[in-house]
Amino acid sequence: MVTIRIEALDVALGDRRVLTGIDAGMEGGGLIGVIGPNGAGKSTLARAMLGLLKPLSGRVLLDGAEVGTLRPADRARAIAYLPQGQTLHWPLSVERLVALGRMPHLAPFSRLSAADTAAIEAAMVATGTLDLRARDATELSGGERARVMLARALAVEAQALIADEPLASLDPSHQMEMMELLAERARAGMLVVVVLHDLTMAARFCDRLLLLSQGLLVADGPPEAVLTDAALAEVYGITAWRGAADGTPLLVPLGRS
Fold first, then answer.
1. Tens digit of pLDDT for each residue in 89-148?
2. Which has the least CB within 10 A, 17, 104, 181, 211?
3. Whole-angstrom Cα distance, residue 118 to residue 114?
4. Which residues pair with 256 in a beta bridge?
5. Domain chopping of the chain, boundaries
6. End-to-end Cα separation, the chain, in angstroms
7. Backbone torsions φ then ψ of 156, nearest 5 degrees
8. Please, what CATH class does the domain formed by 3-83+160-256 belong to?
9. pLDDT per position as a tens digit, 11-66
10. Which has the closest alpha carbon to 82: 23, 150, 136?
């Protein structure tokens, strides 16, 4: 099972330090959410875990190897990435778009193998997009596009997946569908890390939460231990209502504290 270990990680963007002293270990089997207010460093942490940002100090280890020292293709095969704010500009069919997930496995100018084709189809089956395979990807609805982009990430067949704000611009039904898909992959043993703003979704679907505030990791644990009244007031400046429906935990922000 793949592991990611973050050790004393400091990251800066330009002259501004964004992350300071982050320590966390992660493995598959549960959905891990990264939460925090705007500017807390959530997306920066995701990009550092992918080896896309060079730390000021500290390191990110992927199965014991520093992620920044791995070849880009090796990183891409090990950790799939679902970035935020994905806009489609190319008139590709859905199947060809999902096939881009196989690029880390392909040599230049090589053709898709039977294994590649099987991985593409399995990813579309898992995300319920198989019936969209011939559609022009630029004509998809927001919910369809989100599932197709997830299929492209799953087609990599990586053991880890980092999804940065995958719920942005989705309606409530499609938000729940996306979280259910990510939770399914995590329960199947994949290491799934999802950056979230929605605390209700975080409380409902995540098994573990990392709470960032001003570049610091201020809490790490199960949702009920992280999303306390004190933490919500200090980090977000809000109060919240808590409850449950059919055994599902609910957290609804009520107002500013």
1. 778 999 999 999 999 998 787 889 999 999 999 999 999 999 999 999 989 988 899 999
2. 17
3. 6
4. 238
5. 3-83+160-256
6. 42
7. -60, -30
8. alpha beta
9. 999 999 999 999 999 999 999 999 999 999 999 999 999 999 999 999 999 999 99
10. 150
